[in-house]
Each structure stands twice: as C-alpha cells, then as structure tokens.
TrEMBL record:
Key words of the record: Cell membrane, Cobalamin biosynthesis, Membrane, Transmembrane, Transmembrane helix
Residues annotated as transmembrane: 12-28, 61-82, 88-108, 160-177, 204-221
Membrane topology: Multi-pass membrane protein
Pfam families in the record: CobD_Cbib
Natural source organism: Thiomicrorhabdus marina
Subcellular location, record wording: Cell membrane
InterPro entries per the UniProt record, alphabetical: Cobalamin_biosynth_CobD/CbiB
The family this protein is said to belong to: Belongs to the CobD/CbiB family.
Pathway(s) this gene product operates in, as recorded in its UniProt entry: Cofactor biosynthesis; adenosylcobalamin biosynthesis
Protein name: Cobalamin biosynthesis protein CobD
Function: Converts cobyric acid to cobinamide by the addition of aminopropanol on the F carboxylic group.
Length: 312
C-alpha cells in the first residue's frame, strides 16, 4: 500500500485519518486506559529516570532521543505492518489509533467537571501542576479556563496538525515531545539541566500550533481583530502558552493569569486579556470557554475534508 502512495495520496490519507480520529474522539473519548500510548511513553520516561538520571543536559538529551526513537519507531512499524492489509481495513484501524492521541472530549469533560463540582479545588487538581490546596474557588475556575485554552493547543490542535502533515508517526512523535515536557520540563533543581532539551524542543514543536489555536479561538468567538491575542500573550513565561490563554480571555471578557502558586512557590505572572475586564472568574467563564466546542471540532473536520477534496 505505502509503495503506491504519492505525496498527494499521503496528505489525502492523513486528512481522512484526521476526520475519523476527530469523530471517534468526539463519540467515545479515551478508552485504552493503562495501554494508552501516552501511558506507555510515560512508563519509559519513568524507567529511564529511575535507572539513568543524571543532573546534566547531555543525559536529558539521551532521554529525549531514546523516547523519540521508541515512539516514532513504533508508529512507523505499525503503519508498515498495516500496509499489508487492504486500505478499507487499515484506514479505520489507523483512525482508531490516532483518535487515542486526540483528547478534546476528555479535556472538555474534565474542565466541565470543575464547573459542576461542589469543591472545584479538588476537581481541578487533576488538570494542573499548580498547588490546588491553596486555591480559592476563583483560582480553581481560572485554572480550569486557562487549562482548557492551553490544552486546546497541546491536546487537540497540535496533534491534529502533526497528524495531517506527518501521519500517525508524526502524531506519536508530537505526543512523545509533549509528554517529555510535562514530566521533566520543569525549572526545578532536579530538572533544570536534565529537562532543558525536553522543554526547549517542546517550545519549538508548539510554536505554530499555539498561535494557530489562538487564531481559531478568536475566530470561532467572532473576535475579528484576531491578532490582538499577541500583545499580552507574549508576556507569558512560555513562548507559546500565553497566546491561546489570552485569546480565551479576550473571547470570554475576563482577565486570566496573575500571581500563581507552583510547587509551593508564588510565581508573578502577567495578566492576560483586557485591563477593564474582571479578574474574578466564575462558572460562567468556564461555560463561555467550553461553548465553542462544536465549532472547533467542526472547523478541524472542515479543514481536513477540504484538504482531501482539493488534493483528490
């Protein structure tokens, strides 16, 4: 099957996979649990950390290279093995596999659970790395809105984009990069050197997706001056996270960011959004952030279908 593919066929094939993956994720969400690819990647990172950790950039580079090799190599092997099957059978199998690496339904449900919880501080601790025990309800709601905006890029738009361009191997490659950053990419004493490669290359991998996500958020909320997100988005310590967060703040007329506790330490973060909008975040702001779920999914499906149609 693969030997007969042209570059045009490759992008059509990836577009069809993306369509199926978005639909399957929307209908069923996560279903592999302990055998989920991200769980397996995380287990490898944990094993490497336990046996080969050193407080050095070089050892962190070896972690990154080994994780990328195993993740992308596994995906290439799966695609190669499935190439011996007829297309009508291999295509839905790859769609199913790809859907496990998109997480819009799980993200939506998790953020919605914070809005519905009697104790939002308890509900939000599964979503964020910041200290939830010292949060007020306002802090928990703010964290939920920020998490939804930021993870629209990390868990939805970026995986979809890498799937379109590089297929299943590119999708798993991105998830490996993202998982490495989430596990060792922190500026702590333990990971400052060891996690530097993982953190920097995650920034590179997310540069375009984060800005694309911000533009999509602005457009689905009919914020036609869609470039406005950049002004305060660039003030975030991350070169990427601030842009979708600012876009969501502008779209839902609230101020996000500000001083936040991470690992017991107060971090002075910039505010994102219009200065005149309220900093007090309520469940109404979460409802606003989640309200364009259908439009975002439809936009991903429409772009994927348009690529397939134009290239066919």
């Amino acid at each position: 099957m693969l030997a007969e593919f042209s570059i045009t066929d490759w992008f059509i094939f990836n577009s069809l996979i993306a369509i199926g993956a978005v639909i399957i994720d929307r209908l069923f969400g996560e279903f592999l649990n302990r055998r989920h690819p991200v769980v397996l990647i995380g287990q490898w990172i944990t094993l490497f950390n336990h046996n080969a950790y050193r407080d050095s950039v070089l050892r962190g580079l070896w972690l990154w290279l080994s994780t990328i090799f195993l993740s992308a190599g596994s995906a290439i092997f799966i695609v190669w093995a499935l190439s011996f099957l007829p297309l009508w059978l291999s295509l839905p199998i790859i769609m199913l596999l790809a859907s496990t690496l998109l997480a819009h339904r799980m993200l939506f449900d998790s953020v919605q659970a914070v809005a519905q919880a009697d104790n939002p501080q308890q509900a939000v601790k599964y979503l964020v790395s910041r200290d939830s025990q010292q949060m007020t309800k306002n802090d928990a709601y703010k964290a939920a809105v920020e998490t939804y905006a930021e993870n629209l890029s990390d868990a939805v738009i970026a995986p979809w984009l890498y799937l379109l361009i590089l297929g299943l191997p590119g999708l798993l490659l991105y998830k490996a990069i993202n998982t490495l950053d989430s596990m060792v990419g922190y500026r702590t004493e333990k990971y400052e050197k060891y996690g530097k490669v993982s953190a920097k290359l995650d920034d590179v991998a997310n540069w375009i997706p984060a800005r694309l996500t911000a533009v999509m958020i602005m457009l689905v909320f009919k914020q036609w001056r869609f470039w406005q997100f950049y002004q305060s988005g660039r003030l975030h310590p991350s070169p990427n996270a601030g842009h979708p967060i600012t876009a969501m703040a502008l779209a839902c007329h609230c101020r996000l960011g500000g001083p936040t506790i991470y690992f017991g330490e107060l971090k002075q973060k910039a505010y994102f959004g219009r200065p005149q909008d309220k900093s007090e975040i309520t469940t109404l702001n979460i409802t606003c952030a989640l309200s364009k779920r259908n439009q975002i999914d439809t936009l991903l499906l429409a772009i994927s279908a348009l690529i397939a149609i134009l290239l066919s």
